[in-house]
Amino acid sequence: MAKLGILLTLGPFQFENWETASNVANAALDKGHEVQMFFYLDGVYNPIKCQTFPDWSVLPKDRFAELVKKGANIIACGVCVNARGLEKGKDYIDGVTVGGLPDFAQIMSEVDSLVTL
């Protein structure tokens, strides 16, 4: 099976890139492919577990938690996390790790395709 990389650079409430990223990742996992995701810049806001938005029944954090359970590997950029006061990702959903650009470089070297959103 193929390995898919996804780079997500936008936050959850600016645009719907998080939804596109989660839909693509979910479809790939359903077909048996491996998914590696890297959250960069404001993308690091997506897996915060205390998200709330009154009009949405399913939040970004819920979708990414489902992807982790299905086997997706999600890494958030540590410099971006700390620069935004997210304290090393301690408020992230389970399964999301904090790493660095070397992790993204590793992802790029391993995947067959990279989707950037």
UniProtKB/TrEMBL annotation:
InterPro entries: DsrEFH-like (IPR027396), Sulphur_relay_DsrE/F-like (IPR003787)
Record EC number: 2.8.1.-
Protein name: Putative sulfurtransferase DsrE
TM spans (from-to): none
Gene3D superfamilies membership: DsrEFH-like
Keyword Transferase among UniProt keywords: yes
Signal sequence, renumbered to the chain: none
UniProt organism field: Candidatus Scalindua rubra
Keyword line: Transferase
Record's keyword annotation contains Transferase: yes
GO molecular function term, any single one: transferase activity
GO cellular component: a single term: cytosol
Lineage: superkingdom: Bacteria
SUPFAM superfamilies for this protein: DsrEFH-like
